[in-house]
Amino acid sequence: MKTLAIKRNPAEAAQSYKGRRTGLGALFGKELADHLRSRRFLIIVILIYATCFASLYGALSGIESAVENDSNFIFLKLYTTTGNSIPSFMSFLALLGPFVGLVLGFDAINSERSSGTLNRLAAQPIYRDSIIIGKFLAGSVIIVIMVFSMGIAVGAVGVLCTGLVPEFEEVLRILVFFVLTCVYMAFWLGLSVFFSVICRHSATSAMAVIALWLFFTIFMSMVAKILAGAVYPISDQYEAVVNSLNNYTLELNLNRISPYYLYSEAVSTVMNPSVRTVNVVTMQQLDGAISGYLSFGQSLLLIWPHLTGMAALMLASFACSYVGFMRQEIR
Amino acid sequence: MGQNTQTMIRTVDLTKRYGEKTAVDHLNLTVQKGEIFGLLGPNGAGKTTTILMLLGLTEPTAGNAFILERDCTRNSIDVKRMVGYLPDNPGFYPDLTGRQNLWFTGRLNGLKEELIQERTQALLERVGMTKAADKKTATYSKGMKQRLGIADVLMKDPQIIIMDEPTLGLDPEGMRELLGLMRELAKEDGRTLLISSHQLYQVQQICDRVGIFVDGTLVACGKIDDLGKQVQQENRYLLELKVSPCDDRLLAAIQSQKGVETIGKEGETFLVQSRTDIRKPLTKYLGTNGYTILHMHQRGGDLDEIYRLYFEKAGQSDENIGNKTKSGRGRAVL
Fold first, then answer.
1. Do B90 and A116 touch (CB under 8 A)?
2. ipTM exceeds 0.85
3. What part of B 175-194 touches A (C-beta under 8 Å)?
4. Cβ-based contacts under 8 A for chains A and B
5. Is the pTM of this model over 0.90?
C-alpha cells in the first residue's frame, strides 16, 4: 500500500516555522529566477545594452568637440555627450527606464491571478503582503543589477577606447547617477505593479503604463507650457515684464511633477558640475559669482529635493499597489 | 484516532454580503475529525465564498469561522498551516516542472530542504506522477494538474483538506482514482475533508455527511441516508414505470390504485406519485393482466431527489428543477 512517509514531529515542525517571514525569501528567490530565465528579460537586456553602446559610440565621436569647449570632467562626458545625432547615455536611460519597469512589473499580479496560482499561493501560510513585497524586491534587484552592470560596462569600454582615467569625484558622481536611475526605474516598476493589481488583464495594465510613459515623456511639457501660459500670459511687452519670471517658474514646477523631467534634471545636474542651479536665477543673484565648477557635495545638495521626490514617488506607487493588493479579494 | 468527536471546522452565523447580494447567509456548520463533508449546491450558491472565508482569504461581513478553535480571519496564518486548499482550477507556474512547483510550495511552508525532497518523492509516487514530475507543468493535462494539485496540498501535511469542485472536468477513470484517493486521505490518514461540488453523484459515493446549499443558506445537513428518509416521509413516493403494452386501460388501472395522487408522463415513462408504496399491488395487477414491466424504479433516497426537493423548498424556479430531474434520470437509465 502506498502511504505517505510523513513524520509528525512537533519539534521539527515548530522549528521550521521559526522565521516569522516564512516565504518571503522563497518568493523573492523564485521571482528573481523567473525574471532571469524569462525571454522577456533577455529582450530588454539586449535592447538596453544595444542602445547604450550606440550612445557610447555617439559620445566617443562627439567627445572631441566637447572637450574643446571644456576640458574638465571628461570622463563624465562619456555619459552625457551626444554625437552623430545619437542621444546620450543619460537621455536614453531617461527614455527607456520606464520601459524596464514596465516589462518587469506589468503582469506581476494579474498573470498569477489568471493562471490560478494566486489563490494557491495565498492559501499557503505566508503573509499576503509577502507576495507583493517579494515581487517588488525581486524587480528592484534586477533593476539594480542591470543599471550597475550596464553603466560600468559603458564606462569600461569608454576607458578602453579613450584611455581616460576617471577621477574619484567622477566616480562618485557616476554612482549617484546610477542610484538615481535605479530609483527612477523602481518608480516605474511600482507603477506597473500597481496597474497589474487593479487591471484584470495584463494587456490592459501594460497599456495603462505605456500611456503614462508617453504622457510624461512627451506631453507633460506641452501641458505645462499651456497651463503656465494661461495662468501668467505673455502676449505683450507689458505682460512679459510682469509675468515672465512667474510663467517660467510655474512651467518648471509643473514639469517637475513628471518623474521623467525630475530624473533628467537631477541627472544632468549631477553629471554636469558646471550646472550651478536648477531654478531661475536673476542677473542680480549672479552678481559677484565666480565662474567655476560646483563641488560634488554642492551638486548633491542641488538635487537632494529631486532624489527625495523620486524616492517618494517610488514609495507612493508601491504603497498604492500594496494597499490595492491587500484590500483585494483573492478568488 | 477512535475519538471522532473533535470539532475541526465550526462556523457561527457566518455571513458574507456583496453589496445587495448575500452570498452566504448565517451559516452554521460543524465538521468533525476524519469526516468527509460534502458541500453541495448549484453554481453561485456561495460554496466558494464559504471556503475562502474558512481560509481567511475573504473577510466575513458578520459571524465567525473557526478551524480547530482558531479564528479564520484573525489567525489566518495558523489556520493556513493546518489547512490544505485545492482550488477548483489549480494553476501551476508553467515554466517550472511539477517537482519544482512542489518544492516551491514546500519552501513557502518553511519546510527544510531534506523534508521537502523526501515528501516530494513520496507524494509524487502517491498520486502517480513520478514519470511526468520533471516535465514543465505547461504540458500537463487537466487530470495531471489535478493530481499535482493534490500532491501540492499534501506537501504541508494538513489535518484538514478543502477541495473546491475537485471532480470538475475529470474523465471517469481520473474521477475514480480521485475518489479513491480522497477516501484514503480521510480513512487511512485520518484527515478531515471538506468538498464542495455540484456533481451529486460522485459526492454521494464518498461523503459521510452533506450540506445542501442554496442561495447562501444551508437548507439541509446530515447523512445522505437520513436526508433520504426525511424526504420520503415528508413527501410522497414517486415511481418511474415503463410498461408494455402501453394503453388507456393501463392508465385507468393505475389511477384506481389506492393512494395514487397524480400521474405524469415523461416520454414513454409514467411518473406515479402516491402517498404509499404502490409497487406491490401494482406489480400484482400488471402481472395478472398480461403487462410486461420494462422499468420500475422508486425515486427518492438518492441525492438527486433529495437535492431536487430541497431546491423546491428553497423556491427555485421550475425550469431548474426540470433540468435537474432530467439529468438525474439520464444517469439512472444509463
1. yes
2. no
3. 188-189
4. 105
5. no
